[in-house]
Design the sequence.
């Protein structure tokens, strides 16, 4: 999305970094208090009155537990929300290395759970009955029904569940353990993946922990590698993102062979908006994304031109709220899960579109929404792939900012995403060298960002400049770069030079150089696209079915819609993407009604 770039995880109390994971649990009590002290602690762990419990009863069933019995177990599917009627439960968190820490002790009138219980994801914590316990269990589906039916009570419950997830993330003592050198490419990759999905985790530097170093050596990990230990004790060497996700229960292995009303491919602002509106109107919705919710916008440090947020909001906070909201209405989430191809051959006969995933599963839907967005381009610079994850980055989160502390960095790109990243990194780096191919920023960046860059003393703008070389080796990572500035041009800002060739001993380069649409999975369906590969919609797309009137956001395949950055002619703004997602749902209803009338 052109509205932003990458950001640190936020502890916005209205929204977790993620919502689809975990389990029953409270959170690190001290973290839950945060800067708001007792007020935030009270919101995270409220005590329900008898009237509230009476309202909840019709959504659950009463269970009894003996002293010492577990109500839920870390790494196992969470059964739902427990409301304690009698007795007390102690919640503890443990990692795969056997470390156990107490979290909180809860008694009558309190409830056990966190935001992951909206979708029944595996627990991140253990809950043991300290004495004879009587509890009201509200399963995930009933919990969602409760939140919608009892709006005021539901609001209090959801806020508490979100705050508990935030506290678990802040505590960093639950979830998987990542073992390796702190600057290991493998550790940084998995940290970034878990952080963008709002999943609690803990990283151990082998230089500071002898036991971790021994385990790292035992598994034969390379200096750039990582050993991941899941809460159930499983150990993975250099796992891919989806392998780790399966190990921690973040994504399921179910067949999902039911017929969905809508499958949304992509969980950026456009895809999440589609999911929220479609699910809230009673449609059966499945959302998938190959990496994390939020898309490019989810990695934005601060979006300041989105309506209704005069002081700005981080992309992750905005996307995370939508992520929870979609699940509240019953949308199912598959993240990470990647679309491999789309089969349109059955559309004319039985009205189905079939989506094949890279893991071999096949999904069926009456309609599919293409919201797969665009990916940043890789410039033609020698050895680029060698340094990806070892000093070359396509986002700028808190992890990368920490590595850049008091050092010089290079950032390539002149759009809004690049501008947001430059401003964010300038708060950490000694200097940000911003390279742009054009004569300036006015043609591609919002005025407020240009003004901010010009007012930031440690950002140097290099117009008409291209990155030409990367220096370093595989073990130590990036050590330096070179760039070329066109004759007659020079850097703008303190320390600028007019040399045609320039080099710098920097260890981190950030690339935001335009985007290509993520449409490779559509080629099997013959969807109409423009010269750049973006999906055509409406009258420009036409239709493969004679006489079919293509809706404005419908592709050339009836029942296949496209929204957001992937769509040809879209405005590449968060607000526009959300509007398209909402508008697509009315067109989906029309399509489903036409199918039913046949």
Sequence:
């Amino acid at each position: 999305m052109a509205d932003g770039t990458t950001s640190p995880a936020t502890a916005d109390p209205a929204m977790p970094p993620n919502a689809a994971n975990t389990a029953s649990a409270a959170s690190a009590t001290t973290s839950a208090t945060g800067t708001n002290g007792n007020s935030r602690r009270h919101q995270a762990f409220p005590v329900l009155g008898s009237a509230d419990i009476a309202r909840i009863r019709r959504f659950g069933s009463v269970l009894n537990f003996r002293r010492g019995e577990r109500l839920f177990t870390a790494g196992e599917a969470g059964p739902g929300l427990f409301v304690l009627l009698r007795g007390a439960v102690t919640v503890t968190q443990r990692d795969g290395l056997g470390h156990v820490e107490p979290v909180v002790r809860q008694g009558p009138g309190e409830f056990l759970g966190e935001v992951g219980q909206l979708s029944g994801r595996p627990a991140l914590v253990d809950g043991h009955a300290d004495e004879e316990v009587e509890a009201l269990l509200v399963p995930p589906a009933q919990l969602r029904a409760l939140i919608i039916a009892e709006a005021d009570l539901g609001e209090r419950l959801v806020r508490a569940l979100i705050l508990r997830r935030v506290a678990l993330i802040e505590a960093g003592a639950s979830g998987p353990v990542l073992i390796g050198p702190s600057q290991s490419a493998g550790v940084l990759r998995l940290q970034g993946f878990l952080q963008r999905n709002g999943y609690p985790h803990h990283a151990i530097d082998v230089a500071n922990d002898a036991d971790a170093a021994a385990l790292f050596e035992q598994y034969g990990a390379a200096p750039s590698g990582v050993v991941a230990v899941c809460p159930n004790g499983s150990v993975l060497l250099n796992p891919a993102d989806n392998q780790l996700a399966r190990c921690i229960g973040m994504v399921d292995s179910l067949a999902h062979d039911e017929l969905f009303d809508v499958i949304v491919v992509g969980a950026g602002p456009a895809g999440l908006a589609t999911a929220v509106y479609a699910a809230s109107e009673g449609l059966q919705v499945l959302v998938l994304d190959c990496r994390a919710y939020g898309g490019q916008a989810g990695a934005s440090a601060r979006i300041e031109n989105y309506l209704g947020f005069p002081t700005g909001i981080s992309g992750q906070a905005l996307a995370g709220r939508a992520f929870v909201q979609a699940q509240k209405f019953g949308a199912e989430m598959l993240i990470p899960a990647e679309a491999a191809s789309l089969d349109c051959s059955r559309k004319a006969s039985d009205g189905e579109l079939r989506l094949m995933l890279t893991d071999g599963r096949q999904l069926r839907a009456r309609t599919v929404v293409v919201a797969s967005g665009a990916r940043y381009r890789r410039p033609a610079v020698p050895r680029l792939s060698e340094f990806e994850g070892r000093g070359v980055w396509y986002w700028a989160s808190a992890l990368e900012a920490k590595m850049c502390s008091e050092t010089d960095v290079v950032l390539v790109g002149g759009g809004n995403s690049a501008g947001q990243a430059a401003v964010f990194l300038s708060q950490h780096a000694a200097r940000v060298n911003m390279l742009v191919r054009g004569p300036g920023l006015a043609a591609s960046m919002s005025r407020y960002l240009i003004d901010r860059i010009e007012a930031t003393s440690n950002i140097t703008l290099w117009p008409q400049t291209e990155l030409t070389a990367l220096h370093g080796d595989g073990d130590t990572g990036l050590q330096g770069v070179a760039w070329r500035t066109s004759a007659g041009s020079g850097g703008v800002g303190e320390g600028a030079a007019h040399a045609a060739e320039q080099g710098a001993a920097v260890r981190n380069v950030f690339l935001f150089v335009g985007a290509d649409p993520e449409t490779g999975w559509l080629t099997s369906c013959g969807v109409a696209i423009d010269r750049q590969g973006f999906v055509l919609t409406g009258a420009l797309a036409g239709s493969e079915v004679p006489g079919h009137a293509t809706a404005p956001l419908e592709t050339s395949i009836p029942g296949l819609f496209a929204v957001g950055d992937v769509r040809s002619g879209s405005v590449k703004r968060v607000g526009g993407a959300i509007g398209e997602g909402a508008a697509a749902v009315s067109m989906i209803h029309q399509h489903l009604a036409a199918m039913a009338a046949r």
About this structure: The chain has a mean pLDDT of 88. The chain is about 25% helix and 25% strand.
